[in-house]
Amino acid sequence: MIEFKNVSKTYNNRDFVLKNVDLHIDDGEFVFIVGPSGSGKTTLTKLLLREEKVSEGRIVINGFRLDKMRSGKVPYLRREMGVVFQDFRLFPKKTVYENVAFAMQVIGAPHSSIKKRVPFFLDQVGLADKMKSFPTQLSGGEQQRVALARALVNNPEIIIADEPTGNIDPQMSIEIMELLVKLNEKLGKTVIVVTHEQNLVDRYRKRVITIKDGEILNDRIGGMFDE
Amino acid sequence: MSRFRLFTFIKDGFKGVFRNGLMSVASILVLFSSLLLIGIFTTLIKNVNFNLEKMDDFNELVCYMELDTDDETLEKAEQDIWNLDNVTNVLFVSKEEALEQERLEYGEEYAFLFDMYNTERANPLPDAFRIEYESVSKLDALEYQLEKVQGVQHIRNSREIAINIEKFKNIITIGGGWLMLLLVVVSLFVISNTIKLTFHSRELEISIMRYIGATKFYITMPFVVESIIISLVASAIGYGLQWYIYTFLVEKIAIEYNIISIVPFSQMNNLFLIIFFGAGLFIGVFGGAITIRKYMKV
Ligand SMILES: Nc1ncnc2c1ncn2[C@@H]1O[C@H](COP(=O)(O)OP(=O)(O)OP(=O)(O)O)[C@@H](O)[C@H]1O
Ligand SMILES: [Mg+2]
C-alpha cells in the first residue's frame, strides 16, 4: 500500500515541484501517471524510491515511513520495489543472464536460488532463448524486457516504470505494456507507469492520475488521457 | 558476510585498480615515494639523535673545588650535589686522577714535567666533580645552586654546545614532522582522486545497485578494497626499497667511512613496519573513505 499525505517537494527551497499531493494506491492496483513535461512525474517516483526526501508531508509504503526513514534503511525499502527506466540501464558488458543475476547478487542471494530464478523470470518476459546475448545485440523492446526481468527477480510487490516505452518503437511499446498488465493481473503486482503516450493509456482504461504544475489535476479509474 | 561476497569485493577491488591503470600506478608511485621520504626522514632523525646521544659530554659540567678541601667537605659536597634537581650523575675526579690525565694527554715526552709534583711540589690541580644533567633549560638554576655548595670554587660548562645541539635536534624533528604531514596530505589527495575516478567510471553500476537495494556497505566495499590494494602495493614497494637503502647503502657507507654510527636495521624495523604498512594503510583507507563519503549518497 502506498500513501501520500499532503506531500510537497521543492528543490533547494525554490518553487514547489509537487504541492500538497494526497494519493492512495492499494496493493494490486495498476496506475498510469500522466502530465505535461516538467509537471513533477519523475519527482514523484523519486520520492517513492526515497531517492529524494519530501519537503513536507508524509509517505508510507508497505509500512515504511519514508519521511522519517534513516538512510541505512533505504536499501530495504527499495527491495520492496522494482524499477524500470526509459534508458534501460543494463550493463553492456554483461550477458542478459548476468544482468539479471546481478540484482540477486547485490542483495546477497544464494547461488542456488540465483540459478533457478533468473531463467524463470527471463522466460516470463519471453527471453528464455536470449540468456547468453549481450544487450547491444537486442532490440530496444528486448532490452527493456531484460530490465523488467531484473526488476522482478527479487520478487518486489511494487513495479515502478518511468517512461518505459520512451525509447522503443510503437509496436514494441505495446508488448512492454502488455507485459506490465500481465504482471499486474497474473502476479498481483502493484504497477505504476509514468508515460507520455496517450494511445497506450487510452487502450487499457486503467486508473489514470494526471499531474499538472505539481498538483493532482485528475484521478480517474478507467480513465482516459487528458491534458 | 559469505565467502562469495568477500570474493566479489576483492575481485571488484582489483578490477578497479586495473580499470584505472595509469591513475592507480600514479597513486602507487606518489604514495610509495611519500612513504619512502617519510622513512628516510625517520632514518635521519633517528640516527642524528642516536649520534647526539652518544656525545653526552655536552650535557655535562665540571665543578672545581677549592684547592685544599678536606675529605669531609668533599663527601658532604658530593651528597649535596646528588640531591640537586636536574642532576643525573655525579663523578668525583680527584686531583691525583686529574694530574694523571694531564700527564697522559701531554705524552711520554713531557712526563718528567709531571714527576716533580709527585715528589717535590704539591699537586696544583683541584679536586672536581663531573656532573651530568638532564635539561639545558634548567642549567642556570643548577649552576646557581652549585655555587652555594660548600667548597665549590668555580664551574665550567659547555652550555653553548649543548644549546646548539638541542636546537639542531628540534629543527630536525619539527621540520621533519611538518614535511611528513605535508607528504601525508599530498598522498591523501592523490588516492582520493583515484577513487573518484573509479566512482565516475562505475556510475551506471552504482546507480543500478542503489535502485536494486544494495546496502551502502555492499556498494562501497570494492572501493575500500581498491584503496587497500593500492596502499598495500605502495607500502610493500616502499618498505622493500627502504630496507635496501638502509642495509646496503646507509650501513655500508657508515662502516666504510666510519664517520658516524648507525642504528642497526633490526632496531628500526618495527618503526619502519609501522610507517610503511600502518601509515600506508591509513592513507589508503582514509583517502578512499573521504571520497566515498563525498560522492556516495543512498
Ligand atoms: N534535481 C533537481 N533540482 C532542481 N530542480 C529539479 C530537479 N529535478 C527536477 N527538477 C525540476 O522539477 C520539475 C519537475 O521535474 P520532473 O523531472 O519531475 O518532471 P517530469 O514530469 O518527470 O517531466 P518529463 O515528462 O519531462 O520527464 C522541473 O521543473 C524540473 O526542472
Ligand atoms: Mg520525467
- Taken from the alpha-carbon principal axes, the silhouette of chain B is elongated
**Structure classification of chain A:** alpha/beta
Low-confidence regions of chain A = none
- Biggest sheet, spatial arrangement of strands of chain B: 2-3-1-4
The mean pLDDT of chain B is 80
Total tally of structural domains of chain B: 2
Oligomer: heterodimer
**What does the overall shape of chain A look like?**
globular
Attached small molecules: adenosine-5'-triphosphate, magnesium ion
Strand element count of chain A: 10
- The residue fraction in helices of chain B comes out at over 70%
In N-to-C order, the SSE pattern of chain B is HHEHEHHEHEHHHH
Summarize the structure.
The complex is a heterodimer of chains A (227) and B (298). Chain A is an alpha/beta fold and 227 residues long. Chain A has helices at residues 41-48, 74-78, 96-106, 111-124, 140-152, 170-187, 198-204; strands at residues 2-10, 16-25, 30-34, 56-61, 64-65, 81-85, 158-162, 190-194, 207-212, 215-220.
Descriptive overview:
The complex is a heterodimer of chains A (227) and B (298). With 227 residues, chain A is of the alpha/beta class. Chain A has 7 helices and 10 strands. Chain A has helices spanning 41-48, 74-78, 96-106, 111-124, 140-152, 170-187, 198-204, and strands spanning 2-10, 16-25, 30-34, 56-61, 64-65, 81-85, 158-162, 190-194, 207-212, 215-220. In chain A, the strands form 2 sheets. Chain A has a 6-stranded mixed β-sheet with strand order 6-7-8-3-9-10, with helices on both faces. Chain A has a 4-stranded antiparallel β-sheet with strand order 2-1-4-5, covered by helices on one side. In chain A, strand 1 and strand 2 form a beta hairpin. The longest helix of chain A has 18 residues, at 170-187. The two termini of chain A are 27 Å apart. The model of chain A has no long low-confidence stretch (mean pLDDT 93). In chain B, 73% of the residues lie in helices and 8% in strands. Chain B contains 10 helices and 4 strands; from the N terminus they run H-H-E-H-E-H-H-E-H-E-H-H-H-H. Chain B has 298 residues and is an alpha+beta fold. In chain B, helix 2 runs antiparallel to helix 7. Chain B folds into 2 domains: 3-54 and 164-297, no CATH class; 67-150, no CATH class. Chain B starts with a helix and ends with a helix. Chain B has helices spanning 3-19, 21-54, 71-82, 95-106, 111-119, 139-147, 159-201, 203-212, 216-257, 265-295; strands at 60-65, 87-93, 128-133, 152-157. Chain B has a 4-stranded antiparallel β-sheet. The chains are: A alpha/beta (227), B alpha+beta (298). Chain A binds chain B through residues 49-50, 71-72, 74-79, 83, 89, 91, 102-103, 105-108, 111, 150, 154, and chain B through 2, 4-5, 8, 204-205, 207-216, 218, 298. The structure holds adenosine-5'-triphosphate and magnesium ion. Magnesium ion (MG) is lined by residues 41-42 of chain A.
